## 1
Amino acid sequence: MMPRGLLLLAALLLPAAPALAADGNAGTDGIDLIRLLAPPPAAGSPAALADLQAVLATQASRTPAEDEAAKADAERSVFRLTDTLGPGLSPATLPRTAAFFKRVAELDKASAKEAKSWWRHPRPSEVSDKVHPLSMGKPGDWSYPSGHATFGYTAAILLANMLPEKRVAIFDRAALYAHHRVVMGAHFPSDVEAGRIAGTVIAAELLRDPLWHADFVAAQDELRKSLALKPTAAPQVAADRHGAGRS
């Protein structure tokens, strides 16, 4: 089996895919997670048993404070990741940022849902009655990859490119956001790892897609102004990609 790091590198080196719609509501033909992710651990395999043991160990050691933090992070919002960056960061004060990341969340959710429906990997509580999740998932909402982890890492990479001075805090917060899915008993560690890879691939695609560039810059400018940071250049995109920027 190809190591996950090499799998991710191969994914990022694939030829440019069709453009993603800037409204975030189009199909996800350009981000085929089924083709990019390794399959989840097979039922009864040593990897699957280790996955379950990790969930049970986390369940046994979690504290009431961790329970509450994990429940709060069930919200799929970029503002769960910005709580360590400074006060006053909210949808009301950052409407362009909120709108941009709402579209990102919709795209992530659609991409992860397609992959989940393909693999139909059961949730931890469906694998073992020893797992007591802090909330029950919706019927038919499968486990692999974690949609929350996918969004957390997509959002973190985009935020880190908007706010490179805050990269360490952003990625630390994203890792905790993703780990809270295991604390919740909603996901296995392999689901979260797959979400990390999926989020990285999706973020890389968005950063190089000119159809998302203007909204990225608007959110970046708004965020940096709110945090009293100096303006900085946004990541460059290929001017001729998908025909954009051609005279």
Note: The first helix runs from residue 4 to 12.
## 2
Amino acid sequence: MVDHSEITTDVTPASKEHLRRNLTNRHIQLISIGGAIGTGLFMGSGKTISLAGPSIIIVYMIIGFMLFFVMRAMGELLLSNLEYKSFSDFAADLIGPWAGFFTGWTYWFCWVVTGIADVVAITAYAQFWFPELSQWIASMLCVLLLLVLNLVTVKVFGETEFWFAMIKIVAIISLIVIGPVMIVMQFQSPSGTVASLSHLWNNGGLFPKGISGFFAGFQIAVFAFVGIELVGTTAAETKDPEKVLPRAINAIPLRIIMFYVFALMVIMSVTPWNSVVADKSPFVELFVLVGLPAAASIINFVVLTSAASSANSGVFSTSRILFGLAQEGDAPKSFANLSKRAVPANGLIFSCLCLLCGSVLIFLIPNVMMVFTLVTTVSAILFMFVWSIILCSYLVYRKQHPALHQKSIYKMPAGRLMCWICMAFFAFVLVLLALREDTRQALIATPLWFMVLGLSYMLLRNKKAA
């Protein structure tokens, strides 16, 4: 019988090491919000607005709708067996060992790539205050700080993420409150622009760039949602998961409406979409345009902490994924060792070393937005693979364990149908990525990762067989 107070896992026959359930409800709720408000919203929304205009609001709503069902599928699977520590566990159990291997390592790589994008974003935000500061040195300092924060205890990670997410929430709510006041007062910026809701439809209509512009907005918009599944990697360290996980997942639609739809409507009402600069954060630029440089510094701090929050989550999740893979024999055994504080320190250090690749990228390609677009496209493709594996696992679960589904306290609505609709949507997004030159290169390069994984899995299987 499983002891639900903590998940215990063997590392060697002589010793038992376990992840501790130190994350409380408030940690999980804020980690969930932090995951739903990614760097793509703050850093990438400038580009998505310039590509799609006001129709970008519809793009975010469509993606959010699809991902809510992915999260519901994940929630039902995790709660069907509390021995599942993350989605790589149920993928291995339901689909096969290869699925656990591919999902675990791909999710690890997803967060390393996303972490690089976050580090790129952090260095860009740091330029706002320190234009003379070397970007690659700033990125190295950032990675070092993240390593130190995560080496202490999981509770320190939870607290750090709680306050990072709180800063994001307060900032966006402030924007949503101040924006309508500026619209009602018909606030005029130094450039002569008057704040008005009519900006949403007067400058070329809702689809000013046509249907092609609307489709072009999906790439970075998908990246804005990466991390939404982060609550799935906290399952083994969550107190009372039966109550906490459903609560966190059910709140996702409301958060998407508030943090994406309302925030973008306010931005495009105060500053017309065609005035938004593609390679800068519109959250910062909004306050610069209305002549509030002090507020711009505050918002720059907010978007910097947002990127730090995402990178912090990435470092946390990669170390837990490596811990799980090592226990299954799919990663070096040293990654299954925990420190005295019950933290997988070896996995943390390895992931942070990989994050330093971001410093090299910034050094080789000085154009921050070019690096950001390349890295976010790779990340979005890999995350869609992980989300699809979650849906495939759910379909197998429904077929193999109908009794478990019947007694589930958290059933996914329209389960099988929505799984197929979501996977068709992900395939559609891949087609869109192939149509644009700046995203096509990343799409062509991504299969190399799966080739490396396939070769590694074959070698590992032959080694185990021998």
Note: Residues 20-461 form a domain with the Amino acid/polyamine transporter I fold (CATH 1.20.1740.10).
## 3
Amino acid sequence: MNPTTSANVYSDNKNQEDEKILLQPFNHFKQPFPANHILEKIWTACNYWFQVPEDKFKEISTIGNKLGAAGLIMDDLVDNSVLRGGIPTSRLVYGRSRTIHSSIYAFISAMEKFDDFKMVDIFIATGVKLCQGQAMETYFARNGICPTEEEYQQTVFNKTTSAISFIVSVQQLFATQYKNSNFDPFLVPMGLFFQICNDYVNLASQSYAKLKVFGDDITEGIFTFPIIHGIKTHPEDHRLLDILKQRTSDKNVKLYFIKLLEEFGSLDYTLESLEKLKNEYMEEITKIAANPEMEKILDDALNDIEAVVM
């Protein structure tokens, strides 16, 4: 047998075995991430406008889901999250090093599926924004610096809106309708709306707590929309900031923290802001064209919020 051929066969087989091991932290979650589920709904609703051919849309969704899952695994690592989807996060099962390598590998292997240079350009531009958004959120949290509402919005634009925009932009490359339309005015309020929804539910929802940890944004010291309002409108009162700095896991302390937000009017302010964003969101949908699928996503999100409030 030719030694070179033998080495090549061994290398191919070994690479497949190595890949299975490498992807174990990535494949730790058997069910789709809830966040990915929402994103996939958004992509599907956008395709009501774009009418991307079915085979290409399926390929784009697969890439988007893989990138989204890899990003969430990395988020859990950075935030020291304990639960995701009701089970221990990858880092707690496989360790930090293996989880980092698995997430990075998933990002790179997803890029291999890009068959258009424009897709690569969109990916790079999105990756830069995502890193900026995540870095600033981490910077504020690690240093106990409460951002302004404007700084929060910029972070959300980079972190959340760009993640939604990525697949929408890729869809447009293969769209049979609205190929050259500008969707930015629609995506900005949309990204803010869903991020603020998540911020609110994180503090107020018991069902969300079962999937992750009750008030895990408090434990992670993250300055979310209602928390920023509470701190900025009561600068003389340091209780919120002091609790946040302690990264507490104590449920009673978290309940006290949320009670303070209620007293400061921060939760009501958050709901009022969501109502304004909803109207802006709907107005932008109307400007493009009627889209019942997109409107249903909005209604479902609002129903979830109402269920929490009630």
Note: The chain has a mean pLDDT of 85.
